[in-house]
Design goal:
Number of strands: 0
Structural class: mainly alpha
Distance between the termini: 38 Å
Strand content: under 5%
Largest sheet: none
Order of helices and strands: HHHHHHHHH
Low-confidence stretches: none
Mean pLDDT: 82
């Protein structure tokens, strides 16, 4: 089953008894997409724990922020400004100047850009740096 190739060893151990793709998918959905307190709690903390480490491509790091979409499916809303701040805080210190420009925009007052704009700036910055 193709789904099994995408699972970590720990998850695979738990669900290895499933014989069909449909049964596996239903159990995975039941376990990870339920709106239970535990799932919401686990998903809510993930954006705060994300950190871009040296050598990780920016595109890959931005893809990790898809966790926001998972939260949205559980009716947990993170405002656009907060998403931007979470992304900027997850960047390494080498992005400090970039983060300051995004937050202050050359002014003394804070005006955080939309998350979509920040992602676009990060991706275009990486193209320029290469």
């Amino acid at each position: 089953m193709a789904i099994q190739l995408c699972l970590t060893d720990e998850v695979l151990d738990v669900f290895s008894s499933e014989k069909t793709t449909v049964a596996l998918w239903e159990r995975l959905q039941d376990r990870y997409l339920k709106k239970s307190l535990t799932n919401r709690w686990n998903l809510k903390q993930r954006p705060f724990l994300l950190h871009m480490y040296k050598g990780i491509p920016i595109k890959s790091h931005i893809a990790d922020f898809s966790i926001i979409n998972e939260l949205d499916k559980l009716d947990v809303k993170i405002e656009d400004e907060d998403q931007t701040l979470l992304l900027l805080c997850s960047l390494p210190s080498s992005f400090k100047s970039f983060s300051e420009v995004i937050i202050y925009g050359g002014k003394s007052t804070i005006k955080v850009k939309k998350i979509k704009e920040v992602k676009e700036h990060l991706l275009s910055k990486k193209k320029i740096d290469n």
